[in-house]
Amino acid sequence: MYVLNRDELIHSELHSDVIEILEEGLKAIDPENAIPKKLKLDRKTIEIQGKRIELGERVIIAGFGKASIKMLRSIKSILGDLVSQSAVIAPRERGKEEKSPEILFGEHPIPGRDTLESSKKLLEILSQAGKGDTVLLLISGGGSALFEIPLEGVEIEDIAMVTQLLLRSGATIEELNIVRKHLSAVKGGRLGKMLRERGARVITLIASDVIGDQLDTIASGPTVPDRSTYCDAQKILARRLGSHNIPENIARIIEKGCRGEIEETPKPGDPLLESIENIVIISSIDGLKAMRRACIAKGYRSLILSNMIEGEAREVGKALAGIAKTILSYGEPVEPPAIVIASGETTVKVTGKGVGGRNHELALSASLKLRGWEESIVASMGSDGIDGNSPGAGGIGDWKLLEEAEQRGMDLTEYLDNNDSYTALSRLGRSIYTGYTGTNVGDFIVIAARRKAK
Prior knowledge:
Layout: H1 6-9, H2 13-29, H3 31-38, E1 39-42, E2 45-48, E3 51-54, E4 59-64, H4 68-79, E5 83-91, E6 103-106, H5 113-126, E7 134-140, H6 143-146, H7 156-169, H8 173-181, H9 190-197, E8 201-207, H10 230-241, H11 248-258, H12 271-274, E9 277-282, H13 284-297, E10 301-309, H14 313-330, E11 338-344, H15 358-367, E12 376-382, E13 394-398, H16 401-407, H17 412-417, H18 421-427, E14 431-432, E15 443-449
Parallel strand pairs: 4-5, 4-7, 5-6, 7-8, 8-9, 10-11
Antiparallel strand pairs: 1-2, 2-3, 11-15, 12-13, 12-15, 13-14
Helix pairs in contact: 2-13, 3-4, 8-10, 10-11, 14-15, 15-18
C-alpha cells in the first residue's frame, strides 16, 4: 500500500477505486518491481529491451535521482558479485532511513552544499573507471539538483539562486535544464564524454520523469548530446526573469558562452557520446498501462488520454473537469462508468504565499468546475510522493468539495489565488499522502465519471 491516509480519502466507492488505481500505477513504476522484469543477466552479458550488452572487467555503478536507491538495489540483486563498486545520490528525505555508505545525499529541488560534496565523492568513484571497465549509470528525475559540479567561475549558490528564480517563474523543466546544463561541468553530455575519454564503456539506465522521455532533458542529460546552446539559455533567462532579475555572475557566464568564449556542451554527432547506451527502463507509460488494466478489472471503461500533459496547472484542471462532464453528459470519449488516465507535468506560476504544488492546484481548480456533477473526480499526484512545498503527493477534486468548503466557510477561489491548494485540500480530507516513494516518472492523473447524467 502506497497511500498512507487511504481511510481519510474515501468519501465514496468511486474515491476508493481512484486510490487503488493510483496505487497500481506506483507499483508498476517501483524500480524493485519494474527492473527485474526488463533486465536479465546471462553470465557476463545483460539483456535489456532486445539488446545484449557484454560487461567489462569491472562494473562500477553510480547514480543520482529520486529513484536511485531502489534502482541500485534492484540492479545489484541481479548482478551480484559482478559489481566492484557502487554509490548513488538520493534526496535528503531518505537520510533517516538509509545508513549504507554507498548512499550519498543531496538537496532537492534546490542544490546546495550536500549536493556538491556528494557529487565530488561520486566523481571520485567514477574517476577510477578506465579501459575495459563498464560504468552503469542510474539516472532518474531529480538528478539535476542532486548531482552537480559547477563550471569554473560558477558557485553552487549561483545555480541554487537561478534554479529558485526559474521555478517560481513557471519555467518548464526543459527550460530550466537548458540553463543548468550551461552552468555545469557534468550535465549536457559532459559526464559521458569524460568517462568515454577514460576508455570506460558507459550504459545509462533511465527512469524518465520528462514528457516524451527526452533523453537530453532527464537529469539534464549527463551522457546525452545536447541540442541546446548558451544563446538558448540566455534567451530563456531573459524571457522568464528579465535582465534585472538574472544574477550577475550567471549572466556573465552565459554571455561569455554565447560569444563562444566558453566551450559548448557536446553536440549530436560527437563520436564519444555516440557509443554510449542510453536506455529508458522505467517511464510513465508503464504506470499508465498498469492503471488501465486495473480500471478494466474493476469494470470501468478506460483509455489512456496522454502521457504528455503540460500547461498551467489550474488551466489543465479546468480542461480535465470538462472531460469528466462530457463523459457524464454524452458518453464521450468513453461511456460511463469510465476512468480516463494520463500523466505529464504541469507548471505553477507562484504569486501567492500559500502551501501547495502543481498536483494540488490542478485538483483544486478542477473541483471548482465539478459541483453538481455527481460521481465525478479529477485526481492528480506526483509519483515521487512530493508536490511543491507541501507534505502531500497531490490531491483529489470532486463533485462534493465545493459544497463541503462552503459549509466550513472556506472560499476555495481565495485558496487557489494564494497558491494555497494543499491547505484547502488537506482541511477537506482530499490531500494524498504517500511519503517518499523512491521512484519518479512525473505526475499521474485520474479522471473518473461513474454515472451518466440524466
